[in-house]
Amino acid sequence: MRFLIFFLLFLTSSCVTEEKNNFLFKKIKSSHSGINFINNLSYTEELNPYTYRNFYNGGGVGIGDINNDSLPDIFFTGNLVSNKLYLNKGNFTFQDISQSAGITSDNVWSTGVSMVDINHDGYLDIYVCKSGPPSENNNRHNELFINNGDLTFTEMSKQYGLDNNGLSTHAAFFDYDQDGDLDCYLLNNTIRSVGIGFDLRKDQRNIPNKSGGNKLYRNENNFFVDVSEESGIYTSAIGFGLGVTIGDVNMDDWPDIYVSNDFFEKDYLYINNQDGSFKESLEDYMTELSMGSMGADMSDINNDGNSEIFVTEMLPIRHDRIMSKTVYDSWDKYQFSLDQGYYHQFSRNVLQLNNGNGSFSDISRIAGVDATDWSWGALIFDMDKDGLKDIFVANGIYKDLLDQDYVNFMANPSIISNMIKTEKNVITKLIDMIPSEPIPNFAFKNLGDLSFDDVSNAYGFSEPTFSNGSAYGDLDNDGDLDLVLNNVNMNSFVYENLSEKFNPENNFLSFTLEGEGKNSKAIGSKVILHHNNKIYYQELNPMRGFQSSVDYRLFFGLDTLSSIDTIKIIWPNQNESLLTNVNTNQNIYINQITSNKKIEEKSHLTKKVLFNEVVDDYGIDFIHKENDFVDFDRQRLLFTMSSNETPCLCKGYINLDSLEDFFVGNSKGYSSAIYIQKPNGKFDKIEKPFEPNKDSEDTDCVIFDANNDGINDIYITSGGNEFNEFSTDLFDRLYFGDGKGDFIKSEQTFPLEMPFQSTSTVSYSDFDNDGDYDLFVGGRLESNIYGLPSSSFLFLNNGDGIFLNKSDSIAPSFKFLGMVTDSKWVDLDNDNDDDLIVVGEWMPIKVFINVGDSLVDKSIEYGFDKTNGWNHAIEISDFNNDGFNDIIIGNYGLNSRLKASEKYPLTMLVNDFDNNGNVEQILGMYRNESLYPIVQLKDLWMQIPSLKKKYLKFENYKNEKLFDLFEEDVLTSSLKLYTYKLNTSLWINNKGINFSEINLPFQSQFSPVYAIISDDINLDGNKDIIMGGNQYRIKPEIGIHDASYVSTYLGDGKGNFKYLDNKKSGIFIRGQLRDIIKIKRKKEENFIFALNNDSLKILKLNQ
């Protein structure tokens, strides 16, 4: 096979200014570059943010080589100013050829720009989207400038069927049907205003909007035909799209479409059906989205050959702007939206990690890229040539339209009415009152472990801006990617990338692809580099970010690699080209004409996954149903509910046949059940003994012989947050078994203390070595008073199943121990008696050492000082094979807006702050070494009305410290709780002396962990881990946690663990996991997973 490979001579850029530059990116002065484009926006009474909602959305940037001289040129779109085209003359100098080229657009509002060779003559044409108010101007429609090959263009949109006249944002050209020519997805908005009350109705997205809406155009011999409806594309009035991104999401070599929608409508993910149609499948792939999605990009951030998706929103990073410029949905509004068919959408950026199995996990918060203020352009590219793609975000809004003091002012009808009656130019005066603050753009360096470091200042982006569209390209052909930004009411920015100066050891490859037929630039091609088991992957889809187009050359930073083993190019028709042993630091030109038919890889023996889902349910038909209770109705300042922590599981031998049976607990209003295993592997369900107590919420259980009759019994804890302190539904229950599957409830009451409290965990051991089992029962909550520590209990068994509370004498520290969630008896010091481990929320890991006649708190001595977390699960095993038991603690995780450390703990004040008989909880978090309340001011006003006098405006509240909210006497009387750790952790037992914390793989921190089980699942003699959780009942301002699909970690027997992805483990479970048990069924090892508000999932271990 012959390949046409041409090596370009890369010019070393000369110093263009005398200024010293210590940043990776240097802003080129306009006096040198000749680029003086300014997107000036001045509002009037007739045209302003009130008459045109997208007034400050700004313009785009197009980078492309219009004259084929290997120097990328730049196109800027203007709103109230004309578009500009700058010809690259080399050495960062440009010539304005807008007038001579014939691309000007006076008096017409332009938005997105797409650089594309539409007539396949080898020259890039320019497609410009138009928006703004309707007008009679001849060029109000979208324009297609056909490149004449002589630096002039002819407008021909009508001849091509692309003269759409509406509110267009951007267009993406791609060959969706693989017929060899380029089709078009046009992102349109509707003319109608956004009216929440009207629009938040069911099925609005299914109603076509003939006058607007998005369009899919099929190219039929250079004329574009609208095939939207027949192709499965939504064209409704509620699709306020701001970004369209093309890429192969499911890796079937067919292009898919991601549309980011502003306002209340969810984003769209159109999966290509390979027959000319698409299926909108976002909810099948993703669980959490941005609320007001704006720009987006798609690229592979972790070098696994799958593309991630990054979407920008408007969440500020600064505390003062969060408190004064940000609006969140209430819980009720969020639930109403879900009921009406909308989705889990939250005010933050999202970074969707592609799991490679048809699912994504939003890791924006743990990655550190969730908050970049009012963000537009999103670009993923390798800024420093280290082989890892970084993230750039262009942001800023010229007027802070969501400033809460201004919004409140506008909500006063008397003031507005009086202005209208007495003043002229009222609208412009009102807009004058809106605050305006430029914000620096963001650059995030990829650290290689799915996390990013904010290097905005270090990379040269400290200047406050109002940036919108952005694009990258190698403007000086020196082997790194430069950056161009379109700003509102500011000079546009051109940044030179100085990687060759700051990272001279880092190498690169770039690719210029020439397609065949009607796709001359080979849009949709894939380039895959393989070297020493590393993968570098990109797709050629230049229209990306926000209203912009990037350089057509695909650029790969390669760190210090001097050569690449294998390069595969997959062309749009799925033909392939192959290169081997390629030296770096060159641009490779390759023509599709040299490609061959796709080489079908020989199928190898498929590696057996560890688990398979059981298709036959064996008669296990249990479905957990969460009762409809909202904790926030009683405790308005909480962010997370405590009423959805079930179901629970426990196993044992119920009917003396040596076949394992199990119990599963249900929520309030629904009966729990026992499943009795039969010799054929099926199960019989027994509910009758538990139906009289179905109004209790069963939070934990143990199956054990309570009364020493040789027959197993069941103890069930009763919890939840739904009950008042005098409800007998909070009583725990002990059921004595008859060995035949029937049970009699004990008459004893557990625990009998007034007021009654919620319990969460029970564990048994023969603490006093008298031949019977004793019980530890953990107190979870004081009813309706979250934060107050509950008491826990040690019940000693008299041998006949009568239990006596001996906590005061044996373990006095159990009194007000905390909000306990889990417990385990285990011998930690190898002295042949069981010690006790207890965890909970806002409390440290507690270790109680058995000294014979008492349990002594040795937590600090064992290394657990300041381990306060939001822990929910314990797993015990010898993970390093040294003969001592180690501990895994399932915590809240790090994929959250909430952050905590030993130096900067999360802090909660608990008190009846306004003396009205209701206890409130006010959560505080450190930012820049100051502790601020994170509760929104409107919520404070509602719950503690007296504070409205003190904080009449958001301006007064936005910088207020937590301990300045109340007078000293109130603070003194307040309970103060601290959380120092949120990470799920492994604690290695140092020979019974103390414990050392070991980090678990990054994926273990994606979501709160509620269930853990250890077992040697790969039969290598070492203990492995399966864990999961998730939590949906969280206020929108924090956002749900749904990034985990139950994860597997393989142990090496030395205390180290390696993440095993879902494809290899065979475990892929959606939902809120609450418990796991392993049960032997016939000769099979089955694992049962209990999910909140879902059926049980059963997986078989392949042995």
How would you characterize the overall build of this protein?
The chain is mainly β and 1103 residues long. Helices cover 9% and strands 35% of the residues. It contains 18 helices and 74 strands. The strands form 20 sheets. Strands 55, 56, 57, 58 and 59 form a five-stranded antiparallel beta sheet that branches. Mean pLDDT is 94; it is low at 1-18.
Describe the structure concisely:
The protein has 1103 residues and is mainly beta. It is built from 18 helices and 74 strands.
Please give the structural blueprint:
Layout: E1 25-27, H1 30-33, E2 61-64, E3 73-76, E4 84-90, E5 93-96, H2 98-101, E6 109-116, E7 125-131, E8 143-147, E9 153-155, H3 157-160, E10 167-174, E11 183-189, H4 196-199, E12 215-219, E13 224-226, E14 241-247, E15 256-261, E16 268-272, E17 278-280, H5 282-285, E18 289-290, E19 296-299, E20 308-311, H6 319-325, H7 331-339, E21 345-346, E22 350-354, E23 360-362, H8 364-367, E24 375-381, E25 390-395, H9 404-410, H10 413-422, H11 426-432, E26 439-440, E27 442-446, E28 452-454, E29 464-465, E30 467-473, E31 482-487, E32 493-497, H12 499-502, E33 508-514, E34 526-531, E35 534-539, E36 543-544, E37 548-549, E38 554-557, E39 563-570, E40 576-583, E41 586-591, E42 611-613, E43 649-652, E44 661-664, E45 673-677, E46 683-686, E47 698-704, E48 713-718, E49 733-737, E50 743-745, E51 757-765, E52 774-782, E53 793-797, E54 803-805, H13 807-810, E55 819-826, E56 835-843, E57 846-850, E58 855-857, E59 869-870, E60 873-877, E61 886-890, E62 906-911, E63 920-927, E64 930-933, H14 937-943, H15 947-950, H16 954-957, ...
Parallel strand pairs: 18-21, 33-41
Antiparallel strand pairs: 1-32, 2-3, 3-4, 4-5, 6-7, 7-8, 8-9, 10-11, 11-12, 12-13, 14-15, 15-16, 16-17, 19-20, 20-22, 22-23, 24-25, 25-27, 26-29, 27-28, 30-31, 31-32, 33-38, 34-35, 34-39, 36-37, 39-40, 42-74, 43-44, 44-45, 45-46, 47-48, 48-49, 49-50, 51-52, 52-53, 53-54, 55-56, 56-57, 56-59, ...
